[in-house]
Amino acid sequence: MDPLRAQQLAAELEVDMMADMYNRMTQACHRKCVPPHYKEAELSKGESICLDRCVAKYLEVHERMGKKLTELSLQDEELLKRMQQSTGTA
Amino acid sequence: VPGVPGTEQPLPQLKDFLLVYNRMTELCFRHCVSNLNYRLLTGQEERCLEGCAGKLVHANHRLVRAYVGTMPSILQRRAQQLQEPPPAASTDPPAASGPGE
Predict the structure, then answer these.
(1) Residue B67 contacts by C-beta under 8 Å, 6 or more apart in sequence?
(2) Which residue windows are coiled coil (chain A) (predicted)?
């Protein structure tokens, strides 16, 4: 695969993963901030502020996880290679 | 579809990595972040996240190691079972041609 194609695919993948992250975030924040009473359609002020903060925190967590994962994933590479060798040739 | 050229997912490793990343974020967020009175993470939340991230990554390492250790023998056994002659048939007529003949 030529590098440009690989780069394009990686970019598409990143978009997909951002969408996935977004879905998880909305689900998590809804769970944390909107109690399932549903007495009225409008968001209360508390719920609104909670959602704002929740998004801010979720994105912060996402960034930290990224750093931590990159830091530790250098060890992952070795394991992945071994996994491919043992299952790919079976 | 694995094994069929043209339908294989490109960059499977990258996709797996990114999925793990998103799952980790979700899991650790749900478990560690409870104080939504502030926009910034509290000290307690930060410590929890640190532990959660490390724990998940090390758990993943362990799982991979266990998988790598166990899977080959399972695959080998499966391959052997496929090569063995099938058990004696009932009153059904024999198949016209078997695989590998």
Answers:
(1) A83
(2) none
Pick from B25, B39, B68: CB nearest A53: B39
Q: What is the pLDDT of residue A2?
A: 86
pTM exceeds 0.80, yes or no: no
Cβ pair A24:B26 closer than 8 A: yes
Fold of A3-87: Helix Hairpins (1.10.287)
If we measure between CA atoms, which residue out of A18, A55, A74 comes closest to residue B40? Answer: A55
Q: Do B28 and A72 touch (CB under 8 A)?
A: no
Reported as a pLDDT band with limits 50, 70 and 90, residue A88 is low
In a domain, residue B75? The reply is: yes
Q: Do B21 and A65 touch (CB under 8 A)?
A: yes
Regarding an ipTM greater than 0.90, the answer is no
Taking the CA of residue B94 and the nearest CA in chain A, the distance in Å comes to 31
Q: How confident is the model at residue A90 (pLDDT cuts 50, 70, 90)?
A: very low
- Ordered by start, the domain boundaries in chain A are 3-87
